[in-house]
Amino acid sequence: MISDPASQDDLRRKAVRRANAKLGFRTHLIAFMLVNLGLAVLNLVTSPGYLWFPWPLFGWGVGLLAHGLSVYGVSSSLREEMIARELERLREGSQRRR
Questions:
Q1: Whole-number average pLDDT of the chain
Q2: Which residues make Cβ contacts (< 8 Å) with residue 2, sequence separation at least 6?
Q3: Per-residue pLDDT tens for 69-91?
Q4: Contact status, residue 70 vs residue 22, Cβ threshold 8 Å
Q5: Is 25 exposed, middle or buried (0-12, 13-18, 19+ CB in 10 A)?
Q6: What is the rounded CA–CA span in Å between residue 59 and residue 48?
Q7: Number of domain units in the chain
Q8: C-alpha–C-alpha distance, residues 9 and 49, integer Å
Q9: With a threshold of 0.85, does the pTM exceed it?
Q10: What is the pLDDT of residue 8?
């Protein structure tokens, strides 16, 4: 267990930031589903001969996919890995100066 209060605060801030990112994605997903369901119903009721609702569904879906990957995907683990390497490099540099 980490006993340093500064480390505990850093971990808590990181946990809060990640939890907020996950909640933000879930909110985005729910809005995506509800709005696109409404658009599909509107399209099918007003002009069933021409299906236009897949276009906003696709466009917004690309953004939703990018959001999901930033929260859960490769980019977040790659970012964490890069941060860890930079921290290690900076620690080594500060120890050499002493």
A1: 89
A2: 8, 11
A3: 888 887 667 777 888 889 888 88
A4: no
A5: middle
A6: 21
A7: 1
A8: 58
A9: no
A10: 83
Instruction: Find the length of the chain.
Output: 98
Report d(CA 26, CA 44) in Å as an integer.
Answer: 27
Token readout for 27 is 């909110």
How big is the chain by its Cα radius of gyration, in Å?
A: 22
For residue 67, count CB atoms less than 10 angstroms from its CB and return exposed for 0-12, middle for 13-18, buried for 19 or more: middle
Chain centre to alpha carbon of residue 3? 30
DSSP 53: T
Q: What is the Cα–Cα distance from 29 to 18, expressed in whole angstroms? A: 17
Instruction: Name the pLDDT band for 98 (thresholds 50, 70, 90).
Output: low
Q: What residue has token string 């977040």? A: 76
Q: Which domain holds residue 27?
A: 5-97
